[in-house]
Amino acid sequence: MTMSNKLLVCCGTDRREGWIHLDANPKYNPDVCASIPPIPLELYRPGHWEEIELIHGIEHFYPWEAEKLLGDFHYMLKPGGKLTLEQPNILFAAHVLLGMKGP
């Protein structure tokens, strides 16, 4: 595996050129297949990662696991590196499900 400096965590089917893809499900054929936490040792490099993204993933962890992951991401990012977290908006999703206009 060539070490990029961009990590996509819980990637699912999302593929990006130049990124390392991490997922727990082998059917998605990630570059690294592992359940987290903990971050696999081959990815746990202090100050290595320019960017780490976790899209619609942090809400699937227990609070103490999420706290550990966020600390790990901070440790793994280069100074000035970028962490992107995107979570679903449950209020908006509920409105859509009920056929209502958004909040």
Name the features.
single chain, 103 residues, alpha/beta, globular
Topology of this protein?
Layout: E1 6-9, E2 20-23, E3 32-33, E4 49-55, H1 63-76, E5 77-86, H2 90-97
Parallel strand pairs: 1-2, 1-4, 2-3, 4-5
Describe, in plain words, how this protein is organized in 3D.
There is one protein chain. This protein is an alpha/beta fold and 103 residues long. 21% of the residues lie in helices and 26% in strands. It has helices at 63-76, 90-97; strands spanning 6-9, 20-23, 32-33, 49-55, 77-86. The protein starts with 5 loop residues before the first strand and ends in a 6-residue tail after the last helix. The relative contact order is 0.17.
Instruction: Report the average pLDDT across residues.
Output: 92
The major pleated sheet works out as: 5 strands, parallel
User: What is the tally of beta strands?
Assistant: 5
Note the beta-strand portion: 25-35%
Helix/strand order, N-terminal first: EEEEHEH
Radius of gyration: 15 Å
End-to-end CA span:
45 Å
SSE-based structural type: alpha/beta
Low-confidence stretches: none
Q: Helical content, roughly?
A: 10-25%
Strands in their spatial order, largest beta sheet: 3-2-1-4-5
State the helix count: 2
